[in-house]
Each structure stands twice: as C-alpha cells, then as structure tokens.
Amino acid sequence: KIGMEFPVNEVTDADKVLNLLKPFENVATLHGHDHENCRHHVEGIHILTTAAVAGGWWRNGLKSPNVSGEPQGFRVIDINSGQIESQYVTLQEGQSQLASWYTQEETYRHFINVFDASPETQVHIEDIGKLQPLNPFSDSTKRLSPHLYELSANDIEQIASSETLSLTIIFENGQTNQLEIACPSFKQNNE
Question: Cα–Cα distance between 30 and 161 in angstroms, integer?
C-alpha cells in the first residue's frame, strides 16, 4: 500500500495515479465517505475529500455532525473560471458555513474547526493573532483533521471569560471572511 505521504486519505498506488495526472492543468481528485473534510494540494493537484452528507448519524441521529465536528453538507465545485474552486456548503439551516469551536474531549484540547480549510488557509483570532495549522506528520496530531487550528493554553487563558470569538479566515484564493463563533465556558482540568 503506497499512500500520498499525507495521513488523511491514504490511497493504494496513489503515487502512480498522481504521476498520470501531473501533465494536466487544473486537476482535482474527488473523494468522499470519510466523514470529514480534507482539502490540500499535491504537486499542483487538488485533493478534495468531502464529509459525508449523513454526518455521524449512527451516533446521534440524522442531524449529527461528522467525526471532527463539521456539519453535514456537500461540496460545490466551480470550473468555469479556468481554475478549480470549491466550497463546502452545510445542509441544516442555521449551521455555520465556515467554522465552529471543537474540543477533543479525551485530551481537553481546543480548536477552531474551519470546515473547508486547506494547509494554506489562515485563521486569526482578534486579540490573539494567527493560529498555526496542525502539522499532519506530528505524533501529537495523529487522528486529527488538518482543518483544525489549535489554541494554546495561553490562548485559552486569554479568552476564558469571552462569550464569543471574532475570527478572520483567509482562504488561499484570497477570500476573506469575518465571523463570530460562540466560545465555550472553560473549566479547569482539575475541577
């Protein structure tokens, strides 16, 4: 089994498939059924994985989010501009189209989950600054989605009394979005 040297979306003989696609311009591979979004590039080829429309229905019913918190949805791909543009669109009315708070309960780690981020997406929190994307090759990020941006203990301390966070999300195509997301109430780990 040969993967794409990326922890998510491992594909048998991916290097052979990618080599076949390299001579072409504006190429994308489309994947699904992973119950999470993943969007990145390998040598100019768009790798687009779209979370399951069904979300995590086996956990909490038909309105359940996918495994890493993104809501149920679908991907719209625009190829009319001469470039490949894609956007994840959520299904349920009232769900955020861009991002939410995500806490990994077993480790009590906190993240901003940008549902359709790529490694080039930038996330800024007002009064904190730019968050770094996860390193998908680090042992500490195994089994975490590459569209999560972790907040440090210092960041959490700084926002602990906040009700909302003001985010600026800048996608690699220059699209800039400003939004506010609800901030959870924090308990000390030793409580």
Answer: 41
At residue 154, the 3 state secondary structure works out as helix
CB neighbour class for 179 (10 Å; exposed up to 12, middle 13-18, buried from 19): middle
pLDDT exceeds cutoff 50 at 180: yes
Predicted TM-score (pTM) of this structure: 0.79
**Quick one: how far is CA 111 from the chain centroid?**
10
CB 152 within 8 A of CB 83: no
Residue 14's φ and ψ, nearest 5 degrees, are -60, -35
Q: Label residue 49 by pLDDT band (50, 70, 90).
A: confident
Higher pLDDT, 158 or 83: 158
Interatomic CA distance for residues 49 and 36, integer angstroms: 8
Q: For residue 80, is pLDDT > 50?
A: yes
Q: Which residues neighbour 100 within 8 Å (Cβ) at sequence distance 6 or greater?
A: 69, 70, 71, 112, 113, 115, 181
The tokens for 108 are: 């009590």
Which tokens sit at 60?
A: 């909490």
Q: How far apart are CA 1 and CA 54, in angstroms?
A: 29
Longest Cα separation, the chain: 57
CB 15 within 8 A of CB 29: no
Taking residues 52-79, report their average pLDDT.
78
Question: Could you give the CA distance from residue 34 to residue 183 in angstroms, rounded to a whole number?
Answer: 27
